[in-house]
Amino acid sequence: MSKNIIEIDNVWKVYQMEEVKVEALRGLNIKIKKGEFVIIQGPSGSGKSTTFNMIGCLDIPTKGKILLDGKDISKLSESNLANIRGKKIGFIFQTFNLMPSLSALENVYMPSIFHSNTNSETIKKAKELLEKVGLSHRINHKPSELSGGERQRVAIARSLINDPEVILADEPTGNLDSKTGENIIKILNDLNKKDKKTIVMVTHEKLISARYDRVIRIKDGKVENE
Amino acid sequence: MLKQYIELIGEEFKNRKVRTLLTTLGIIIGISLIFILITLGQGMENAIEEQFSKIGIKSIRIVPGHLHGPPTSAVGFDKSLKEKIEDIRGVDYIDEVLIHDSTIGYDKEKVVTSIMGYNTKLSDKAFIDTDTKLESGRFFRVNEKDAILLGNILAKESFSKEIRTKNQVIVENKIFHVIGIFEKTGTDIDGRAYIPLEVLREISNEPNLVNVFVVKIKDGFDIEKVAEDIRKRLRRVFKSDDEFQVFTPEQLIKQIQSILGALSIVLVAIAAISIFVGAIGIMNSMYTNVLERTKEIGVMKAVGARNSHILSLFLLESSIIGLIGGIIGVSIGIIISLLIDSIIISLGYTFIIIKVDPELVIGCLLFAIIIGTISGLLPSYRASKLQIVDALRYE
Predict the structure, then answer these.
(1) Does B295 contact A97 at a Cβ distance shorter than 8 Å?
(2) Which numeric CATH code is attached to A4-225?
(3) CA B313, CA A80: separation in Å to the nearest integer?
(4) Nearest-CB residue to A85 (from B11, B304, B307)
(5) Is-contact B48 B256, C-beta < 8 A?
(6) What are phi and psi of B333, to 5 degrees?
(7) What is the pLDDT of residues B175-230, one digit of tens each?
(8) What is the C-alpha to C-alpha distance for residues A215 and A225, in angstroms, rounded to an integer?
(9) Of A59, A111, A162, which is closest to B389 when you measure between CB atoms?
(10) Please, are residues B196 and B145 in contact by the beta-carbon 8 Å criterion?
(11) What is the pLDDT of chain B when averaged over all its residues?
């Protein structure tokens, strides 16, 4: 059996809003194995976005442990967390979150500016990634000149530039029509099956053609069932 | 890394050219003002120093006590004062200057001017010692009577018809032969006329008045020491310090420099205000920038940018805004300074000698960068501290 790449161990996240304490996560336990394709589902307010933030090292838990590749990240400093985000995790967002002033190519290699040195190798790799997602003819276009599906494909290429182990996708098809959405899911399926990437996808959509391994349902800040 | 940062910032600038330019406006105005002021100030000092080297470092001027400007015909001393200081060690000779305001008539026209008396016993000595040169003609001969020397502008521009050497002019109903015309100097000599001192005493009916004594010092004597000896002697003669002033060229330079200095302080203060306003402009623009790009900052952090990366990215951006303002400001400053220089030269003056100082250029650019960086400190710090989760959610 392959080892766990992500382990969320009794994690609590409490937000202090003025006088009220909001418990977004209440003892969450999730284990995800290397190479798995996992879907996290739940109604809004269930804590699935917070779960996404925890796995993505975008936020730290109030209580509990998060192990990424066996390493506890819940107590790491800001700069160490940034390093982990840059090297181990690739993000895909519902709203694409591309840099509007940069071209598709520049968007793809942008993460490398903060980590490795951007050089001709990186740029070559960025071009290959764009080719992989079928955008080799659009590399110099700005996001505003691309369709929604094309933008999401640029975002997928960007998530792969530092060769991460985990790809975290937050409603990646939420802003796309169903046919374009299918295409995106197909790319994610390929990344999982061919490139052996671990994929964690947060979504509330029922009909997905994803060839996933598991669905984790979250409700009231806890795992409801698997 | 720096190269990629600059590329990132460059893409941002391309998207908001007008705003970036407007943001730098305060810095542009401030830097160009400072540049022009310092260049002109230095230009004036250059010119003053050159003028004084012309006047001759080896002479002392004695003027009446209450005079606060150039010597005039209105105040002066009795000529007997000369004998009382002549014997002081180090004094070569003493030239008595008499100034008389009158008119010069030529070809049915009359022009008001200052006429100076020249002691013809000195032959051309006093002119040579002050480096006064003729464009045409000759200086006075000993005991010459009806001869006149004219300043360059007086001869060439004051009358509708140009006066030349060997022409005749009329001063107080007497005919004078123009024996020479001075070179153009850019000083008040250009508008003056010189006639023999004894003749001027008769004309002006001032047999004993001397407006200024110019004391020429012998080589090898310390001019400040001789000036002090003259002061001591004059104190005994006048029994008071208020009746006379003794100037050495160095003191004059210092006096003018202190006036210029005070003037520059005021002007630099104006420039400083402009820079301050410019800095606030940059700060404001950077805050807007951070706000507008909150989501982008979130994205950059999500894909692995540290707080320090964001901080340096934004600081670099504001320092580049400063640098752009500095480059444009200095360029405008150079153009305007050279323009002023060419206007002054074309008007025939030399009271400013403009030189573009490379140290000043570099200094202004560095200053602009520093201002840009300081203005960006707070906004950049705020950008770096944004919470990723909040930033990503920002619309």
Answers:
(1) yes
(2) 3.40.50.300
(3) 19
(4) B304
(5) yes
(6) -60, -45
(7) 999 999 998 877 778 889 999 998 998 888 888 888 888 888 888 888 888 888 98
(8) 9
(9) A59
(10) yes
(11) 86
